[in-house]
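Q: Fold this one first, please.
A: Sequence and structure below.
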Amino acid sequence: MTRVLILVVSLFVTADSMAGEPVDIGSRRELFVDDALVERLVGKADFRLHQPTPREVVMVHDAPWEGNNTTYHCVFQDGDRYRMFYVTGHLAAKNDQLDTRIESFCYAESDDGIHWRKPELGLHEFQGSKANNIVISRAMAQGHQARIGAPAVFKDTNPQAAPDARYKMFLSAEHPLGMLPMKSPDGIHWTPMSQTPVITDGAFDAMNLAFWDSERGEYRAYWRYFTAGVTQDKQWEPAGVRAIRTATSKDFLHWENQANLDYPGSPEEQLYENGIHPYHRAPHLLIGLPVRYVDRANPEYTTPAVGNGRAGPDRIREWPASLRSLPDFEQRQARAALIERLGSALTEGLFMSSRDGVTFRRWNEAFLRPGIERPGTWNYGQQFICWQLVETQSAFDGAPRELSLYATEGSWLDQGKSLRRYTLRLDGFVSINAPMSGGELVTKPIQFRGKTLSLNFASSAAGGLRVELRDAQDQPLPGYALEDCDELFGDTVQRHVTWKSSTDLAAIAGQMVRIRFVLRDADLFSFQFTEAP
């Protein structure tokens, strides 16, 4: 009886899925950063989150105006230049209190994304000299009734953007608290777009960012709020857990559709930053690189107001042994003597993705761990990931381009921070992986445009993968069955699938199909139907 019931349910589910409308993916590239197109996984196939590879330190923040706590970096490629903007600040112990001071907003540029220079812009004076790379000074921000906060510059690709507003960002308005829109014709010279903040519902004490979403034809903003935050006299009183809020706009001035981000299947955690932006190779997908905050001495604390007391020697002796064994113990003690969590909290990078900008698939495992223990690591403030990824040349001659991301490290109070580069293969965030014993992925019904199917994959020398195209009844299409497919093996970001040595799919383009991927000791990162072979 049980076997009959299972068979009936199975037939019902199969018939129901066949009756559903196919997902029209056209010729866009699809990544496996979520299960939106996955109907079933068979055998030992499963999702695998990949971690970036650490590379060189690309920038040391050692200029006098950069202070010892430079952070909140943003980067993008602009024509033949890579451009970077960052906030400089200084933290110090003063009369047994933490003295926090934002110094300036600065600019750097590069020809390759690896070797960076800080041009002398001659715009703002620091200690009697304008020989610096300051774009916005503290005095300039105050002149607009704002503070620098944590701006994120982006180049506006909206076709309707005015020439004097080709670059945009937000400063942090103070009265009322909120996001003050700024515009620039060149990314260097900035003026306000409004005399008052345009978004005021939030805490805004992290990077406040926005971008033009070309897929949806609107601007989208993301900023910090607290899950139980309340507003008193137009000032935000933080409570609850650090979280992220979003809104949309057609003109960058009038914002609507506010929503708090949702992470089905993930626990409530303290999230600094958000790092959300369209992935340039698949702009219908939004990816985020938030920072996870964990207090190892006070794991039960969830509100910012709790755990802000000082930690004396007796309290520090109560810390877990591993926390006391981490690098820079004297630095850690000094920070904890001011505010305990500054010595006991740790930060690391996460990865998440979304197809609507509100609901995100967030991976609970770390994307960018603190790494091997060494001076300047495993502290509060490490692995704040620079907003946006860029493509750079590989260090290997003849290899394809790769993704570069940048993250902070360094132990503030007596020295400045630095910025380290990390690399990842194109589309290399998450793969469908199977061991040598094998596994399969079958997609939901889709429709596509194009004549060829291209894969981004990696296998061992003995492993590989094959592809089968199946019809609406979940049966192999003649000529595109598994036994017709020439096995693929290697490690490449683009290889065309062939069936009996042919790549031609023109005859079935536009039909409802499922794709069956069969893998052995291999990773599949993305696929795309294209017109040209």
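Q: Good. Now the second chain.
A: Here it is, same layout.
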Amino acid sequence: MYILGLNVYHGDSSACIFKDQELICAFEEERFTRIKHWAGFPSLAIKECLREAGIHIDQVDHITVSRDPREHFTKKVIHAIRNQFSLASIRQRFANSRKTGSLEQDFSVHFNMSPEFFKGRIHNIEHHRSHLASAFLASPFEESAVLSIDAFGDFCSTMLARGKGNKIEVLESVLFPHSIGIFYTAFTQYLGFPYYGDEYKVMGLAPYGKPEYLDKMREILILQEGGLFQLNLDYFVHHKKGVTTRIFEENDPTPSIIFSEKLVTLFGPVRKKEEPLTDHHRNIAASVQRHCEQAIFHLLKRLYLLTGLENVSVAGGVAQNSVANGKMIANSPFKHVYIPPAGHDAGTSIGSALYLMNHVLDQPRIKPMFNPYTGSRSDNDSIEALLLARKVPYKLMSDQTVYDKVTDCIIGGGIVGWFQGRAEFGPRALGHRSILADPRRTDVKEILNLKIKRRESFRPFAPSILVEKVPDYFETVDYVPFMEKVFVIKPEMRSKIPAVTHVDGTGRLQTVDAKIDRKYYDLISNFHAKTGVPVLVNTSFNENEPIVNTPEEALECFLRTKMDMLVLENCVIERTA
């Protein structure tokens, strides 16, 4: 049985395909279109799924979509009428509902199939149930509390549930217009970060400030007795004007401004994108981050009271807040947390497929998902053909020679583009599409930003560490294969790995396990043998674009930046000038 899972006409559109209980592959459409957070019908990702599976579209038994326009439909209409939403907002809501509710036309255009073929094969799975499934049904837990938390999807922002076996029971929900994600996005816009997905910049900025505005934040996002929350809607406009995007014109999910003039009156003029950041801005970021964390812990305590379980599985856009994730155990009664590699909306393609497979069709669960490498791949033969055609000098080396060459380059202060195996599914590079550097250097951040990344100076770089060495370097010991949690680095170790130690003494951890990724593990082991440090700086292989997906894209990024070495599988290219 083949199940094709989709996230369509929503930020981070994606596709995956399962054969029985095996995930064959999963792709974000942005990796093919080269447009960040691309929203629309993921035709290229679907075609790649079918190619990987070796089947035609007519061999797919079920197609799942992680949106259900029928969910809360009456409430949506009543709310829009009562609040006199703008005509543009109403039109967009109608178009979105029509698109996600009826995809036969898209399939007929892209795959030359009769719309009649898809009748009964397309299943709309509510957005947050898709998030819940992407977390719990891929987790190692037989029973778990489950939390989905983001901005909005299907008129809902938050869902609390219990998972047991292959079933999920929804316990409580928070509906539009109240949303922790909207709270965070409003301040992201206010601080001059206007694009979809810019919230991580606020998270990175927060440690540079002090949470001096917590009292004001508590007036804006109100934590209610009993464990839920609500927004003070005086500070927002999304409930009155609706939210518009450019999804249907430009496949851009960036939302319209969602905060009101009252927020400007309270905090002062909105920062423009090009304006310098002040202590005022840094303190706002710190306050927003701290209160967001408090709201998440507030929900977790409520969820524990509802379930009494020790395990919790978490997904949704807010679950990409790795700083909050790293504090969940210390600030809630839960003892174990699972967050999938794609906790954001791209992961709902997997979640919707799992929900249908397990919850609806009553099929067995998949093995726990600890391997994020489900994307595009290449091989030495095709890479050599590319390099020969482009007349790029290279050397084909054995694995061990590659490790020695790369680590010597890094120890000498070099920056290496590392392209290996299947691409990661999710927002983070995890050692297959990565740029690597020496964590012992104090100037790595400046070098990386000068040579390649050209990004804000306050944004940190992450440590990839051998899994068994975590207790030596971090105050919290956990298994973190997807770089989804930030932990405090031991004070005595911070001077040894300054390049990956953030200003507040933390690092966004990626544990590297030989059972999951032998090649990356062996590379770090080689560096460890030479330096005594079992850590590498790991940042995504890109330059203000989606993470590179193909050898061609990796080569182009290398040629237009100042990386010192590029490794494409076993082909090594060194910069000569």
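Q: Anything worth noting on the second one?
A: The longest strand covers residues 143-153.
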